[in-house]
């Protein structure tokens, strides 16, 4: 069942669902979701002379990105065709009996700005900021301002609490992330097996 505004608030007041900081609940809380704001850090993909990303080589993926900080009050210009990683300003702590999905806001979608290219699941047990996959599918550059509401989290109650929540007994490679985190797919067991 998807949590309503009332239930989101109740779970936050009870303290097991954490979204922090929420500076203006009246603005951020929606009928069945909570709006999240854009943080100040971005990872831009470098157009280097590396011709191809090999997901199984972790270091190589890291080599592709450059971190930029844009303080609140300034703008990050997202150019047509660009793909950058951003972060939510808020960090979340998802209890074991909830799953959250990240969605872009319709108002930004109407400007051709997509907030998550593929990944939208925030697992039960996940703690940290959320990495946003920002792209501009339109034809005009769009100015994004850190602090603006760009995405929303929808919380769904599980049929029972997860036995193995994110961060427990598994390779939870994004647990506790702060700021945008580049892909760490190279540490997946199927890639590391057989390595010297
Ligand atoms: N847009 C998103 C989506 C998810 N996450 C965080 C919360 C998730 O709990 C965690 C892992 O997400 P996925 O399970 O989609 O990613 P992977 O399967 O690649 O990672 P893992 O192997 O760690 O499960 O990353 C995030 O920061 N930004």
Automatic annotation (TrEMBL):
Region named Disordered: 166-196
Active site residues of this protein: 133 (proton donor/acceptor)
Pfam family name, one: DCD
One of the GO biological process terms: dUTP biosynthetic process
UniProt catalytic activity: dCTP + H2O + H(+) = dUTP + NH4(+)
Binding residue positions for dCTP: 105-110, 123, 131-133, 152, 166, 173, 177
Pathway connected to this protein: Pyrimidine metabolism; dUMP biosynthesis; dUMP from dCTP (dUTP route): step 1/2
Transmembrane residue ranges: none
Keywords per UniProt: Hydrolase, Nucleotide metabolism, Nucleotide-binding
EC annotation from Swiss-Prot or TrEMBL: 3.5.4.13
GO molecular function: dCTP deaminase activity; nucleotide binding
PANTHER family with a match to the protein in the record: DCTP DEAMINASE
Subunit structure: Homotrimer.
Protein task: Catalyzes the deamination of dCTP to dUTP.
Family: Belongs to the dCTP deaminase family.
Protein name from the UniProt record: dCTP deaminase
Protein species of origin: Halolamina salina
This protein's encoding gene: dcd
């Amino acid at each position: 069942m998807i949590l309503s505004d009332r239930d989101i608030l109740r779970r936050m007041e009870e303290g097991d669902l954490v979204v922090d900081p929420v500076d203006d609940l009246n603005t951020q809380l929606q009928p069945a979701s909570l709006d999240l704001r854009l943080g100040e850090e971005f990872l831009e993909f470098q157009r280097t002379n590396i011709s191809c990303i090999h997901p199984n080589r972790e270091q190589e993926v890291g080599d592709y990105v450059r971190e930029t900080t844009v303080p609140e009050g300034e703008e990050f210009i997202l150019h047509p065709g660009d793909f950058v990683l951003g972060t939510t300003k808020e960090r979340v702590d998802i209890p074991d009996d909830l799953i959250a999905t990240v969605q872009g806001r319709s108002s930004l979608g109407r400007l051709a700005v997509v907030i998550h290219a593929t990944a939208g699941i925030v697992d039960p047990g996940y703690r940290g900021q959320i990495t946003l996959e920002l792209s501009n599918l339109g034809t005009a550059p769009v100015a994004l301002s850190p602090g603006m509401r760009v995405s929303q989290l929808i919380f769904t109650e599980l049929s029972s609490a997860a036995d193995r929540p994110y961060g427990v007994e598994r390779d939870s490679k994004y647990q506790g992330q702060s700021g945008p985190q580049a892909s760490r797919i190279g540490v997946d067991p199927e890639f590391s097996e057989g390595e010297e």
